[in-house]
Amino acid sequence: MFTPFGARSASAYQRINVETSMHTIDQHQLVSLLYEGLMSSIATARGALARGDVLTKCNSVAKAVRILEEGLLTALDRQAGGEVAANLEAVYDYALRRLILANARNDDAMLQEVMGLIEPIALGWKEMKNNKEAANEAVHPALAEA
Description:
Shape: globular
Order of helices and strands: HHHHHH
Helix content: over 70%
Distance between the termini: 49 Å
Oligomer: single chain
Number of helices: 6
Number of strands: 0
């Protein structure tokens, strides 16, 4: 009797929590979240493909495609990013085409290929933040203690 209300309330709370956190995180964290969401969506698609769950596979691939198109590609600063941004754009474009083809062909190897392309980029992005924080702590040790 009360379950639908509880589920709606939890969903509303989660949505508000996400919207609020979007205003308080920096660009680096936002891109990190996009990478995490992309990797998670592809992993979910792979699991669904293995189980024969076509709907979940299609929805997960569609989510991964949206993250690439509407998130990571739009976040690229093509003018300031120079060659790095151009290279990332090429990787993202290739990943998009492979995801769509993997979805159409039910090809786990293609999904795994995309994960293999994106994972080192995501790890490098995360490491870049860690290195910057370590450098800031070395230059301003008093700020690290605060």
